[in-house]
């Protein structure tokens, strides 16, 4: 009885409300001042429809989608089939081309139909009202929200053509299972694009938005099919289909071919892409300096501006093209997982194609989970002897042009209470630079560091922009990798690429950012900087090679036209590093525990070297 009285009340009240609004609308339409007020309060310069953005690998394959809980791919009016438009108009708003935003008769008719049915068969809102609700308002059922819906619908009708409103509506509506708009629905339910679907399939999809829960095809296929048939019959009754066309569409078998929702295969890499994307926007839009300003208000304003810009771009359906090589990424992940399996040791790996400065692979942990701590670029650890090539030997060659055969003392060293030891505590007398480097002796490195000069040596690091290295680190222990904070795997690997040909340019994951029309919006424009002379590069490559054949990196050796690298071990074996080069790639490996503690038991097995070797064996020898 209560339900019946409720319907009676609604039946009496809603038409009255609409009639009053219609009278007000007539007055409003003649009032310029009211329109001006509405233009100020509800400007509607655009109709906000957040679209899905995409991240692609080097081959153009999608590796991740970015959406704010709404998976949507918008179509232009010309891309939406006329048949589909007819279905929605017949089903949702037969007076669409005649009304000015709302239809009192339709509201009354919907109340009568729904009152006599076990389900919601018709809605009282026009297509314009539904678009207003989906794009600008919430779905709460209150009189204030309903009035706001009518005002927004009125503004939509003033600002946009019927063609534009219908286009946006078909792109806005919800098709369940996280799919918004017809194209996303077509892709999901049929693994196809809208223009490839039959009219029967289009009508089947059009049945869903009326009540997405009740007509979810994955759970209520039969109910969806029955509604599809009703829609087809309504088209026939409206003269849009012949009898034979109607029967043919109804009898056509609808077979779903659901596209599995993309599981992000490479979260380590795509999380870094998102981080780099923010950095790229900050660089191009001139926000970098403001983001690190000493003035907190400037920093906050810059961060807000950056966040808003990034969100706007990601909701516009952009494509982020990256340098990811899926084969190398998979090999890197498998190697880290296999070599560190069953231990509490973590690892990170970075692979750079150094002639192009493309970041082709990045591993943030052996079992990395999306949006977690990425050890490849967020973890800063002491580099140990892996820093000697960049801070000690290459600067020494640059400043002195000394030969690799030059002798240097490997004896004990002590100065002002600082008394570093060689591994194992040995004292070696005079050794060549080549021997000292390959066997990673510490005291010769300290002596070379002193000869070059601490400040001079550090000046060679500036182009690499190590984030955590400061003037506080300008001390003797830095020669053997002793820093206040340390370096990341990505930073160290990037810097080692300078030993390929003497120049340096930061390696990036992002190649280009394009809009929906394919226009390039953003790309990095770094210029290469010459760091080392040709003679220094030749000497360093010789020393790095010696490490892999007669030194501490022998377990990483593979047959290649060139191979070279440098190991690094910190006090108590808390960190193990190896950064090495082939002719085409520079690969950096770090392993350690998140809470630093000794890994002495694993040192002999040299997992950092075997990980590097396995990864590079997977890469074709070009």
TrEMBL record:
<dbReference type="GO" id="GO:0008658">
    <property type="term" value="F:penicillin binding"/>
</dbReference>
<dbReference type="GO" id="GO:0030288">
    <property type="term" value="C:outer membrane-bounded periplasmic space"/>
</dbReference>
<keyword id="KW-0511">Multifunctional enzyme</keyword>
<dbReference type="Pfam" id="PF00912">
    <property type="entry name" value="Transgly"/>
</dbReference>
<dbReference type="GO" id="GO:0006508">
    <property type="term" value="P:proteolysis"/>
</dbReference>
<protein>
    <submittedName>
        <fullName>Penicillin-binding protein</fullName>
    </submittedName>
</protein>
<keyword id="KW-1003">Cell membrane</keyword>
<keyword id="KW-1133">Transmembrane helix</keyword>
<keyword id="KW-0328">Glycosyltransferase</keyword>
<keyword id="KW-0961">Cell wall biogenesis/degradation</keyword>
<comment type="similarity">
    <text>In the N-terminal section; belongs to the glycosyltransferase 51 family.</text>
</comment>
<dbReference type="InterPro" id="IPR001264">
    <property type="entry name" value="Glyco_trans_51"/>
</dbReference>
<keyword id="KW-0378">Hydrolase</keyword>
<dbReference type="InterPro" id="IPR001460">
    <property type="entry name" value="PCN-bd_Tpept"/>
</dbReference>
<dbReference type="InterPro" id="IPR012338">
    <property type="entry name" value="Beta-lactam/transpept-like"/>
</dbReference>
<feature type="domain" description="Glycosyl transferase family 51">
    <location>
        <begin position="60"/>
        <end position="235"/>
    </location>
</feature>
<dbReference type="InterPro" id="IPR036950">
    <property type="entry name" value="PBP_transglycosylase"/>
</dbReference>
<dbReference type="Pfam" id="PF00905">
    <property type="entry name" value="Transpeptidase"/>
</dbReference>
<dbReference type="GO" id="GO:0071555">
    <property type="term" value="P:cell wall organization"/>
</dbReference>
<feature type="transmembrane region" description="Helical">
    <location>
        <begin position="7"/>
        <end position="25"/>
    </location>
</feature>
<dbReference type="GO" id="GO:0008360">
    <property type="term" value="P:regulation of cell shape"/>
</dbReference>
<dbReference type="GO" id="GO:0009252">
    <property type="term" value="P:peptidoglycan biosynthetic process"/>
</dbReference>
<keyword id="KW-0812">Transmembrane</keyword>
<dbReference type="GO" id="GO:0009002">
    <property type="term" value="F:serine-type D-Ala-D-Ala carboxypeptidase activity"/>
</dbReference>
<keyword id="KW-0472">Membrane</keyword>
<dbReference type="GO" id="GO:0005886">
    <property type="term" value="C:plasma membrane"/>
</dbReference>
<feature type="domain" description="Penicillin-binding protein transpeptidase">
    <location>
        <begin position="347"/>
        <end position="583"/>
    </location>
</feature>
<keyword id="KW-0573">Peptidoglycan synthesis</keyword>
<dbReference type="GO" id="GO:0008955">
    <property type="term" value="F:peptidoglycan glycosyltransferase activity"/>
</dbReference>
<keyword id="KW-0121">Carboxypeptidase</keyword>
<keyword id="KW-0808">Transferase</keyword>
<dbReference type="InterPro" id="IPR023346">
    <property type="entry name" value="Lysozyme-like_dom_sf"/>
</dbReference>
<dbReference type="InterPro" id="IPR050396">
    <property type="entry name" value="Glycosyltr_51/Transpeptidase"/>
</dbReference>
<keyword id="KW-0133">Cell shape</keyword>
<comment type="similarity">
    <text>In the C-terminal section; belongs to the transpeptidase family.</text>
</comment>
<keyword id="KW-0645">Protease</keyword>
